[in-house]
Structure formats: structure tokens, C-alpha cells
Amino acid sequence: MGAPVGSTTSASPPSSVLSAGDLDALIGGLAEDGYRVLGPTVVDAVIDWGPVRSSDDLPRGWVDDQRAGRYRAEPSDAVHPDAAFAFASPASAPKRWFLPPTEPLFRATRRPGGSIAFLPAPDPDPAVALVGVRGCDLAALAVLDRALAADPAFRRRRDAAFVVAVECGHPADSCFCPSAGTGPGIPDEAAAAAGADLVLTELVDEAGPRYLARPVSAAGAERVVGLGDRRPATPADIDGAATVVASARDAITRTLPFASAPALVRDAPEAAAWDQTVEACLLCGNCTMACPTCFCTSVHDRTDVAGTTAERWREWDSCFSLAFSELHGGSVRESPVSRYRQWLTHKLGMWPEQFGSSGCVGCGRCITWCPAGIDLTRHVAALAMEVGA
Fold this sequence. Notes:
- This protein has helices at 20-32, 135-147, 152-160, 177-180, 188-193, 218-225, 235-251, 261-267, 272-278, 286-290, 336-355, 365-368, 376-387; strands at residues 16-19, 36-43, 46-51, 62-67, 70-75, 102-110, 116-120, 128-133, 162-166, 198-205, 208-215, 231-232, 297-303, 309-316, 326-327, 330-331.
- By secondary structure, the chain is α+β, with helices and mostly antiparallel strands.
- It starts with 15 loop residues before the first strand and ends with a helix.
């Protein structure tokens, strides 16, 4: 299994270059060792996480177009047909494999004599191996590690996972990870602290794809040593990987002032920009469902008609729901603007005080998947302009 989250190797092993066959061997070896191997796949013209048996299941030759309120994915002649990671990011974040959208907590049954038997949650699923985690999503997992440190189920899944990060070479219009300091470019120390085992950079030319591999855990180093076609990385390989990252960084123009954002959202709760932004909000909660760090949940009990069996389930919830802030007598956040303000103030303003970092990693999914195209970077800019910051 992967190393416990936060562990590092005493000294990072040298980088290697893996062939496409090595990538297949890596995936196959993880599956043979009992991992549930997941990676970006194409389902119904959407690039999202799914089972991966070999590199053929990856979205070779596919690109995505993500911008405010728009998502499209399709094969493109603009990239090499064998490029497996020529897209910005999977549609959903990897948090779902560690904090499932729905999860049973326990089951209770009434015995014939009337006593109640409490049964634990079902046996855990196999450990997951994620192949293709972007830098922003890796940073998001590190944020969740702090926010959910006391959740035993989350910790068990995280510590058992094997994580292969892949540097981003093709960012989307909605991305703003450089502002958040989460990419493009994944430093070894940050990758190891976030529980990654390997960091790959896809290099593609006329000869086809190859992958610069940097082990950042003992488990990752062990996996690389077992691959037959690998060779030591040359300076040209390392320079090529740096060029991929630099080109991706240069392509990102959207920004958010993370240093001043906490004060902006905290000190201007009555600014007109809040109402102006929320005029378009549908209160659908897509932003919170798509966000890689939102972790709010609710608990529901389900009972059969006969009253002999009851189950308690945990489910994702959203602060955009009217019932989320329901107290005796009603909801404390009845207006749409109060719910939007709660979400953004917590993410950008309160999160740094609670967990030591922003709750936003700059992935841009909230922008992409908002049907109204609401853009939090524009909203923060409007706040700054209004208050003269």
C-alpha cells in the first residue's frame, strides 16, 4: 500500500523516464496488488474518473474546453493522438474516493425479543490507486487531510491509497492555480506531504509519449524500480518537463488575490457586489459539489416499513441548501446572497484561520460547472474595486 499521508523518503531517488509500456506495467502491477485503479477516462464525452486497466483506458488524444458555465471534451488533432493527459482536469475531484458522496455509517436491527443489534458499516472497499491527479487536486487532498483529520474512515482510505500525480500541461480557461500556489508544477516536498507516491510529466513528440517519473515516497520508488523499460532521466528530459510546466503556467491568465481575499470577504459583507453576483445564482449547489475541498455533510436515517431495520447514512451537503442552516424555527440563511456569502467567506476568509490555508486551490471547477457562469475571481475583483482595495 502507499505510504501514510505526509511521510516522505529520506532522500528523493533520481528521476527516471518511463515508456508507455512502463505506464501499463505500473497500472497492471497496482491492480495485481489489490488496488482499485482509477484514472481519467472518457464516458459520454466527459473526461472523469473511472476504472483503468491499462493506458488504453486513458483519454488519449482528447482535450477539454472549460470556461465559465461551459464544459466540452473531444478528440483533437491539436495534440498527439497518444497523449493521455492533454486535458486540464477530470470533471470531478478525487475527494469522492476518500469522502464518498453517500456512505453508510451503521445499521441497526430489531431482534425477535425486542432488543436492538447495532452492526458496523460494511467492510471497506479495496484501497484505491489514483493515476493522474493534478497539482490543484493534490493540494486539495492536503487541505482535506487537515480538515478531516479526526474522521477515521477518511484517514483509513487516504493512508491506504497509492497516488500518481501528473503535471498539468494543458490548463483550462477557468484555471487559476498559480494564484493559489498549487500549480502548474508540483514540488517534491508538497507532493509527498499531500500523500503522492509518484509525480509524472508527460513528454510527447514524434517518437510517442514518455513519462518523466519522480518518486516522492518509498512506495513510489519501489514501483519505479520494478519497471523494465525505465531509464535514467537526462538533462534534456528534465528540461522538457520544465518546459511543459512553464508553458502551462504562461497559459493561465485568470487570477485571484489570495493574500487580500480574507479581508475583502470578511470586511465587506454588505457590499453591493454580493447582490450583483447573486442575481444570477440558481442556488443549485453545483459549485460546492464540484469543489475539491468542500466537505460539508449531513446525516440521514432510513427505516424500513416494518420498523425492524434502520440505517444511518452520511451524504454530501451544501451550504446553498435552505435546510443546511435549519435550526429550531427555520433557516438562519434564507436569502440567496447570505448563502453565497457564507460559502465564499468560509472558503477564502475563515478557512485560513481554521486550517492554515485557503479553501480554494484554483482548479476553476466552480466556474466551469456553474450553469449561470458565476466566476468567483470576478466577484473578488468587484469587491476590491468597490471597497478601494
